[in-house]
Every structure is written in C-alpha cells, then in structure tokens.
Amino acid sequence: MTVRIICLNCLAEFKFDRSRRSWVWVLRQQNGAFATRVADYSNKVDRRCPNGCEIDEEMLDYPTRVIGFVGESASSKTHLIASMLYSIMNDPVLAREWSIIPSRKSTKMLAALENQLSNRQAIGYTQKRGYAGNQRQTMDSAIGAPGMNRPQGQRIPAPPVRQLPGVQTQRAPGVPGQAHAWSGWQPRTPIVVKVTSLSTRRTVNLAFVDVAGEDVADAEIAAKVSPHLAVADFIWFVVPSTLNKQYLAIMQQHANAANEDSLHNAVEHSQTVGRTNMMIDQIAKLWREANAYPLHLPIEPPRLHVSTIVAKSDLLSLINLPETGIVAPPADWADTPFSSNGGGNLYQRAQIDYRSDATRSLVRKLFPAVDSTLSIHFPWNRYFPVSAVGCGKRSDNSYPVFKPYAAVDPMIFMLDLFDELWADR
Question: Which of these, 273, 240, 244, 248, lies nearest to 373 by C-alpha position?
C-alpha cells in the first residue's frame, strides 16, 4: 500500500510504499511546482524524507492533510485550535466515532495550550515571524511562556543565505547546494494529530498550522514564514465578529460582566475589514502561484476546501439581528452550566449547514466586503460561528469561564469528508 506523505520540513510531497519501506514517487517539488516520476528509492528508511529531512514515524504510516488557520494575532485562532482539539477529544458523542491522538512532537505544545485554557488563562498572541539567521523554531517559542503575551516582532530583511561553521543548512529538494526559500526564517510549527475512524478503522494525519495575518501582508514573506499554506488541503480564515466598528460600539453599549473588559480592549478588536480583505487576497495569490492555478478560475474543492470561522461569536448576542438567535450562543452563555453536549455543537450535517447559511447572511450585513472578497477566490467558502472560550478576556488576561461554543463544528464538517481525506490524490 502506498501513502501520500508531506515532509513538514521541506514540504516536498512523496508516496511511500509501506510494504517495501521505500519512497516511490515525488509528486510535487518545493512551493507546489509539479514534478515527474523519479527513480525508486529502495534504501532502508531511517525516518527521513528523500531530501534528508527528519520525519515522524507517524507520517510514514498514514496519509497527511494540512489545515492552515489564517488570522491576525488577536483573532483568537490559537485559542481556537486548542479549544477545537480539546473539545473533540473530550466530547462523549464524538468519542464513539473518532479516536484523536497527538503526535509525539506535538503533545508538549498542545498540552501547554490546553493547560492555559483549562486554567482560564489567555494564550499569548501568535508572534509575527521574521528572519532569525540559522536559529530553529522550537515548540516552546511557538507558544510563548505560559500566561505571557508575546510582543509583536518586527520583520528584518533576509540577508543572503550562507553556511555557518558547524550548522547544517536545509537544502531545497533536488537542488544540491541550494537552501530552501524559507531557510533562516521562523516557519510555523504544525500541531499534528492522528485521527482514526472507529467504524472503518482508517487513519489520517491532520497537521494544523497557525498563521498570523500580519505574516501574509506580503505573499513573498508569507511563503517563507508559512510555506505550509502552499500544500494546504484546507484553509480556515479566522475573522473576529467585531470587524464592523459601528456594531462594535453597539456591543460595547450592551456589554455585560463576562465581556466588558474584552470589548474595551483596543488591541483585541483592532482588525479591520481592509486588512482582512488584503489577507484573503494575499493567501489566494500565494496558493495560486504555488500550485500553478489559473488566475481567472475560482479555487474549488476537492483541491482546496476553504472555510471562514467567525470567531468570538459570543459577542454577536449583544446585537439585535434576526440571525443572531441561530448563530450566537445565549447572552447568558458564560453564566449557565455546561450544556449536555459540552459546547453547543451540532452533530447533524443538515443542522451545521443551516447555521452556516445563517452565518453567511449575517456576515453580509456586518462586513459584506469580506464576503465579496471570499466569493471572488473561494465561492464554495463556508462559514462557522465559533467562540473558542465562550466569553471575553479580562484585563488580567484571564477568563471568567472556559466554555467553548460550537468549537467542534468545523472539525465535524471536515471529518464528514473522511473518505476524501484518507484517499490518495
């Protein structure tokens, strides 16, 4: 049996013959450029890809799919990844259908994120990446020290790549002596989980990549600090519910104890419609260039699935629009006990579709320009309203409660496509 493998270091795509323990295909070179069949690699595999990168043993056993979370630093996307995985691993209904196990290298990072949320402490902002010479990003530097908000870094232009004494420089696939385009930069460290269907006993690896929107202000820089987006199977844009500042003012007027501090935090709600549209456009540009995708054609599934998560959806209960009763949790969500399913999740595809359509209708009222930009590049985009924590952050970086709302809906929708995830492409 052959399995599609993505090396999460050099991003080359291969096929791995599990019975022969050998590499048999090179599907795509760096940055998504298509390649032709190459000679069979029959040497014994020592957990390295054909380009020499160290690779997790888990990646050799099952197909890998890459999911990119894209949003600005304060959009709560890191909270969302941790909350989503925490919720699905602790949901008694989903536990009867799925087994989710973090990879060895991701366990430490995921545990640190979950501990902060379960202790009702805010996770630090995703720091903007810059040039770091030959320093390698560690898992600790990806999440920051517990309880700390990491300051926004300033991008420094990258000097020419040079080999330092005693330092092994990463090489581009098939080009001896040439470094990766992202060598010396600080690429994101994915969180990798192994998902198994209990009914079919089929397994797939899901690699979640957290990308700061500030990184994608320039598609060239995005390709260096977030190159995983070039081989992504899913892209989830994370857009806060407070983009429209007129509605933000209404929310501030009707704020309650659970979100008053958060709503008056200027940094937390600084993302604008203009920057969001630019972020979406730059990601589309990066993905098209990397995959030689025609500029005039919309990007469609199954090649790439795109969804937009309307984050901090608990704040939508503070405005009076017909859709908010479907999209947002009740106004007293943070004051009530946990719901029976743990977080307002919808388990039926028809119900998820209904809430997605209501969210689309609401987005077209709150920030219609964002929906228009998404429609140009990704007309099959879906919307998911989610609150990663269920309430606003206090001034001391803590939360009154940790009660996610609808955090599992995007995962349920993706796992509904499990046969497609598992199949080779």
Answer: 273
pTM of the model: 0.77
Cα-Cα end-to-end distance for the chain: 14
In this prediction, residue 39 carries a pLDDT of: 37
3-state secondary structure of 18: coil
- E-strand stretches of 7-57: 13-17, 22-28
**Do residues 154 and 130 lie in contact, with contact meaning Cβ atoms separated by under 8 Å?**
yes
Instruction: Using pLDDT thresholds of 50, 70 and 90, give the confidence band for residue 308.
Output: very high
Our measurement of the distance from residue 227's CA atom to the centroid of its chain's CA atoms, rounded to an integer in Å, reads 13
Within a 10 A sphere around the Cβ of 350, how many other Cβ atoms? Answer: 7
pLDDT tens digit sequence for 146-186: 344 443 333 333 333 333 333 333 444 444 334 554 455 45
d(CA 398, CA 123): 9
d(CA 181, CA 161): 9
* Closest to 69 in 3D by CA, of 174, 183, 209, 167: 209
Residue type, 148: M
Cα 375 from Cα 182, distance rounded (Å)? 30
Q: How far is CA 365 from CA 270, 273, 275, 325, 371, in A?
A: 19, 13, 18, 15, 10
- pLDDT tens, position by position, 132-147: 444 443 333 434 433 4
Name the phi and psi angles at 235, rounded to 5: -125, 125
**Six token digits for residue 135:** 């320093």
d(CA 45, CA 43): 6
Beta-carbon neighbour count of residue 175 at 10 Å? 12
- Read out DSSP for 146-188? TT-PPPPP---PPPPP-PPTT----B-TT-TT-B-TTTTB---
| CA distances from residue 21 to 12, 14, 15, 45, 230 in whole angstroms, order as listed | 18, 13, 11, 6, 27
pLDDT score at 46: 52
Residue 99: pLDDT band (50, 70, 90) is very high
Q: Kindly report the length of the chain.
A: 425
Q: Is the pLDDT of residue 73 over 70?
A: yes
